[in-house]
Amino acid sequence: MKVHFVTFGCKANQYDTQTFRQELQARGATVVDSAAEADACIVNTCTVTNQADAEARKAIRRLKRSNPDTQIVVAGCSAAMRPDEYSAMDEVFDVVRGHDAAEVAGTLQFGDYEPIGAALLAHDQRGTRGWLKIQDGCDRRCSFCATKIARGMSRSRTVDEVVEEAKQLSEHHRELVLTGIHIGHYGIDLDAPSSLSELVERLVTEVPQSRFRLGSVEATEIDDRLVDVLVGGHGLVPHLHVPMQSG
After folding, report:
1. Maximum pairwise Cα distance, the chain
2. Digit-coded pLDDT (tens) for 17-30
3. In terms of C-beta density within 10 A (0-12 exposed, 13-18 middle, 19 or more buried), how is residue 225 classed?
4. Is the pTM of this model over 0.90?
5. How much of the chain, in percent, has pLDDT values that exceed 90?
6. What is the DSSP letter of 170?
7. Cα gap 180→11, rounded to integer Å
8. Residue 90 above 70 pLDDT?
9. Alpha-carbon span 197 to 194, nearest angstrom
10. Is residue 119 scored above 70 in pLDDT?
11. CB under 8 Å to 198, separation ≥6 — which residues?
12. Residue 180 DSSP SS3
């Protein structure tokens, strides 16, 4: 089966698409760059604005026009929020309410909804810079943001798991970007609580072959420990992207 991917939205979505790819390739699928030659198209949607939802619907119709025989599976945040709307589209073959790679693969008649691919992402095939997702979801209840509803509560990956995945990704990527939905809250929910600062210290120490860059982090979540790593020249790019609403 030949599969084509279309991804909307944030770095976390870009990362999730790579997990879809890895799982599908583990099942024998081939990734192609053109929808015209694809047996299936996976559309990973964003719902941060109404415009994002509209762009996903336009893309789905465009994909079907370019290849009437392709099977279109819609996944991601907008699919989690509006599954019935996508299911009602004639162009859509199936809908996955979120970002479960095994479920995405299972919809394409692979007959198995259990993951068979590697648990850790080994290679971000988008380019030379790789995304490293450290957590998902958010515990905030900002009135302007639908992401909390689509992604759920904050869920951090363990420090050991993130470090191990970073080691694998570092074999292909000179720079890794730490991403998630609310990375400033990283580690708070773990059984053995951690923090973004502690994670960064582990990464720059144990994965020296790559440099690391922080995704968006709120001003109130940048502590002295993190600043020390930023200015210390020890593998963390001295760059911060601070959302304006955090002020």
Report:
1. 56
2. 999 999 999 999 99
3. middle
4. yes
5. 86
6. T
7. 7
8. yes
9. 8
10. yes
11. 159, 187, 225
12. coil
CA 199, CA 59: separation in Å to the nearest integer?
38
Could you give the residue ranges of the DSSP H alpha helices within 77-231? 77-81, 83-87, 101-105, 147-151, 159-169, 196-206, 224-231
Contact call for residues 78 and 49 (beta carbons, < 8 A): no
SS in 3 state form for 189-243? CCCCCCCHHHHHHHHHHHCCCCEEEECECCHHHCCHHHHHHHHCCCCECCCCECC
CB 178 within 8 A of CB 204: no
Question: Please, which pLDDT band fits residue 109 given cuts at 50, 70 and 90?
Answer: confident
Q: How far is Cα 21 from Cα 118, in angstroms, rounded to an integer?
A: 11
- Structure-token pair, residue 212: 């690391």
196-206 and 159-169 helices, crossing angle to 10°: 40
Pairing type for strands 30-31 and 2-7 reads: parallel
Tokens of 55: 């762009």
Dig out the tokens for 117 from the structure.
């691919």
Amino acid at 138: C
